[in-house]
Amino acid sequence: PRSLVLYETSYLAVRRAAELSCSLSPFVLVDLGSNLGEHQWELLQRSDRILLVLPLSFLALKNAHQLIRFLAESKIDPSRINLVANRTGQAQELTPDKVEESLDRRLDHQIPDDVKSMNRAANLGEPVVVNNPSSKAARALHALAQSLGQSVIKL
To answer: What percent of the chain has pLDDT over 90?
Structure first.
């Protein structure tokens, strides 16, 4: 069927794009989305580091718990997984301590909910680390990037 051909083409395209990216750069960041299909799974298996980004909500915590359990059952080394809390500091969110307790893991990074800086950067079409490098979000993103590589280019 036509849809199967499109899927296979998409799968091959994603695989080739990942291979090409890896050959051109020492760092490749891939946003896999929330669905774990065959090509996402292959990219996860080949990844040196996996960033599990989640808001501090009950649903995100439940999904993170399931994914961490699945990765463990699939023999993915837990040291490759970094937990990143996104948009922290919002009203009615779970506390970082409760999330860490529930997942039995510490949050490696917390990106604060810096709406003003993030919206301004998005509206100007610039990364927040360039547009407003002293903002809370930019400093947290810089620390995250620094933890992933040996050095980060100072902008």
So the answer is: 62
